[in-house]
Design a protein that fits this description.
The protein is α/β, with parallel strands linked by helices. The protein has helices at residues 29-35, 48-64, 84-101, 113-125, 139-145, 183-200, 202-210, 212-216, 220-240, 256-265, 273-290, 296-308, 321-330, 359-368, and strands at 5-12, 15-21, 41-46, 69-74, 105-111, 132-136, 153-155, 158-162, 170-173, 334-335, 338-346, 349-355. Helix 6 (183-200) runs antiparallel to helix 7 (202-210) and helix 10 (256-265) crosses helix 11 (273-290). The N and C termini lie far apart (44 Å). The protein binds nicotinamide-adenine-dinucleotide and zinc ion. Zinc ion binds at residues 144, 192, 256, 273, 277.
């Protein structure tokens, strides 16, 4: 029994994602697939770093569970290859593998969010849909990309321009696989965990404060607890709004209006996603304080925790503020002339805020972009 936590995310009565979390879970991957009768031939979609470190144990586990054949599709590394070209290359390889075997095919997303997004899009569209198993190997993918069903690829500079929402059947998260992640990737994932804590789980926030050092050191047991709590929050919002249509799921975008703008303004290269979200949460917290919705002391607690996790709390030096503001204005969260974004009311509670414009966020961003404003805690 290596897995410490199990979540069942029920989207419709006949459509459930089992999410299993725990140190050492990779060794059980084949049995978990077999128990759910997901197929007997796997197409594993991965990138060089996770595959080099962990490909062999994954294949051995699949084989032990009765998966007779596996084909590894490697691409990347990184975001640059999350393209239509990679996707079509994958489909062609899947079809060749499929024809040669005539077995029940399923897809495994094995890596970070990039691998899971490409795998999910291929699984959702190949033969009008084959089962998807996500085995995320970055902390960010574990608490975000692997669960919730969104998938896709970029087209030019348009992020996630083409994709679908189809839920994975199984998500297996082995927190031991995060041991090889660079510290910056761990911190980036922690930013999304802290996001989940601020919007809906004050206890998770206190847990990250208390166990910060163990989490940053990639302690598998501490990470399993944080990932499980974090996914409980994400699962709740996804369950309420599986196709992202009613707006409730939008609370998961806390920190992302400014975060996306910073990513766009820095060309999606200088700033990892989690770091952009960390700055975005600080800016949204400032705006909420300005509007009298959030106590300054709570904002300071959030900023202090992010900084203690090694995350930035102000935009990178040399940021072109004009470009960032323009990117924010282009953001899709305008509805009928009104701007909508997420603001914290307390640690553990956030609201969807509607305003005629983005001025409150813009002012807060401009302030945090000035190094002299003293926005970086000592
Ligand atoms: N579908 C969704 O709901 C959703 C949500 C959030 C993010 N995303 C997407 O996820 C992507 C970002 O994900 P990410 O932060 O995981 O980046 P990533 O997938 O690029 O992974 C970061 C790097 O770490 C490497 N890596 C992966 N596992 C490793 C391991 N165990 N040890 C060492 N290196 C390892 C990867 O190969 C890559 O080079 C973006 O494309 C984003 O759009 C999707
Ligand atoms: Zn995010």
């Amino acid at each position: 029994m290596p897995h410490a936590f199990t979540l069942h995310v029920r989207h419709r009565p006949d459509d459930v994602t089992d999410v299993l979390i725990g140190p050492g879970l990779l060794r059980d991957a084949g049995r978990l697939v077999a128990e759910r009768a997901l197929g007997d031939a796997a197409v594993v979609v991965s990138q060089p770093a996770p595959w080099g470190n962990l490909g062999k144990p994954l294949l051995a586990a699949l084989k032990a569970g009765g998966v007779g054949e596996a084909h590894a599709f490697l691409f990347g590394p990184g975001e640059r290859q999350k393209t239509l070209r990679t996707y079509t290359r994958l489909l062609v390889e899947m079809a060749a593998f499929d024809q040669a075997l005539e077995r029940d095919l399923f897809v495994v997303g094995f890596g970070g969010g990039v691998a899971c997004d490409v795998a999910g899009f291929a699984a959702a569209t190949y033969r009008r849909g084959v089962p998807l198993v996500n085995v995320p190997t970055t902390l960010l993918a574990a608490v975000d990309a692997a669960v919730g069903g969104k998938n896709g690829v970029n087209v030019g500079t348009l992020k996630n321009a083409v994709g679908t929402i189809v839920q994975p059947r199984l998500v297996a998260i082995d927190t031991e696989t995060f041991a090889s992640l660079p510290p910056r990737e761990i911190a980036s994932g922690l930013a999304e965990i802290i996001k989940h804590a601020v919007i809906a789980d004050a206890e998770l926030f206190a847990f990250v404060e208390a166990r910060r050092e163990a989490l940053l050191a990639a302690d598998p047991a501490a990470l399993a607890e944080a990932v499980a709590r974090s996914l409980r929050v994400k699962a709740r919002f996804v369950k309420e709004d599986p196709l992202d249509r009613q707006g409730r799921r939008a609370l998961l975008n806390f920190g992302h209006t400014v975060g996306h703008a910073l990513e766009a303004a820095t060309g999606f290269r200088r700033l990892p996603h989690g770091e952009a979200v960390a700055v975005g949460m600080c800016v949204a917290a400032d705006a909420a304080v300005d509007l009298g919705l959030f106590a300054a002391g709570e904002r300071d607690r959030l900023v202090a925790l992010l900084a203690a996790c090694g995350l930035p709390v102000s935009p990178p030096r040399g940021l072109d503020l004009g470009t960032a503001l323009a990117a924010m204005a282009r953001d899709k969260k305008f509805r009928r002339g009104a701007a909508r974004y997420v603001l914290p009311r307390a640690v553990g509670h956030a609201v969807l805020h509607t305003a005629p414009d983005l001025k409150a966020l813009e002012r807060a961003l401009a302030r945090r972009a000035q190094p002299s404003a003293g926005s970086r805690p000592a």
